[in-house]
Design brief:
three-stranded mixed sheet; 12 strands; 12 helices; Beta-lactamase; alpha+beta; globular
Amino acid sequence: MLVRLSISGLALLAVAVMLSPHPASAASDRPYVVVERASGAVLLQNHPFDRWHPASLTKLMTLYVTLKALKAGEISEGSPVTMSKRASRAPPSKTGYPVGTKVRVDTAIKILIVKSANDMAVALSEAVGGTVENFVARMNEEAAALGLSDTHFVNPNGLHSPRQYSSARDMAVLARRVLDDFPRSAHWFGISALRDGDKLEHSYNLLLERFAGADGMKTGFVCAGGYNMVASATRNNRQVIAVLFGANSQTDRAVEAASLLLKGFEAGSGGRTVEAMSNPGPVVPPRDLRATMCSEKAIKARYDPAPANARIDSPLLDKPHGGVVEAIAIGGVDAPASDAYLTAGLTPRRGSVPVPEKRPDYVRLDVDGQAIAHPTPVRANVPTPTRSPR
C-alpha cells in the first residue's frame, strides 16, 4: 500500500470519506474506540459508552466463553458440535448443515469467526453450555466479570433483539481479553477464507486481503445497528484494535476501519487504558437505524463488492491479495462431548435429517424476524451455505 503513515490522520480520514462510495451521514455521531493492544491505551475515541446493537460482534463473547471452556477442560478441540433443530432454524448467515451434522469444536470456531454462521453459534452454545439459555447466562456472567457495564446478551449469534446491546469501549475491552487470555486464538482471526469441498467462503472482514498488517477480528450487521466492526492490525510489532459502529455498508465499514487503524498507528501510546474508562452517564438506549439502514432506497444504493475479493476504490486499501485460506470439513470428531451437553439431552435422533427446502430470497431480517426484500435474490438451496453481510 502506498499510503504513508506520516500523512496526518485527519487528512487520511477526509480522503477516506470523500472516496468512500457512500460517505456516512452524521459520522461524527457514530461511536468508535481505538486502543493499543499491548497496553490497552486509548488512542482515539468518540461516544465510547453509547449503547449499540452489536450484531455479530456478539460472537466475540460466544468465542470467549467457548475458549474458557476449552481451557478449563470442559470440552476439547475435537469434541462434537451437533447441528440441532433449534440451531438449524437460525436465519442467514448460516452453514445450512442438516440437523444431526457433527463438526469439531475447532472447526465450529473457524466457521463462527470467518463465516459468522448464526446456526453454528447456536450449535456451539449448546455444545458448551448444554442449552442456549445456560450459555447466554455464562456470556452475561463473563461480561460482568470483565467490567462490561454497557453490555447485555440475549443470544449467542447477535441476531437482533432490543435487549441485546454493547458499547465501543466494552467491545474493545473484550477484544483485548480474547487475545490476551487466549493467544492461540489469534490465528483464527486472520483466516481470510474457508474452503469447504469445492466452496470458498470469504471472510466479511474485507481488510484481511486489502490492508497491510490486518490480522482480525470480527464484523457484524443488523438493520437496527448498521455495519459494525472490531478490526485489528499489526505494524512494526505494534498491534492496534479499532471498534466502530453504524457504518453504511461493508465497504464503508472497511474504509473507515482502515482510517481509524492508520490514525491509531500514528498516535502515541500514552494515556489511560480502556479498562479504566467508566461511563459518566446518563445511560441512553441503543439507537434503531432500521428505517434508514434497511429502506429499499438504502439497500439499492449500497455498494458492496461481489465477489468478495473485488477491488475497493480507496487509497487506504490495497488490491485484494491471497490471504490465509483453511480447509474445513464435517466430522473428524475425536473427543467426548461436554458433560453439560450430555446432561441436557440434546443428542439429535438418528434419521431426523430433514429434506432440504427452498430458502426465501432474502439476506436480511428485521427485528421481528421478517424478511426484508433484497434487489438481488440469493440462491436458495439448503444446505449450500448462504451469505449475509456481517
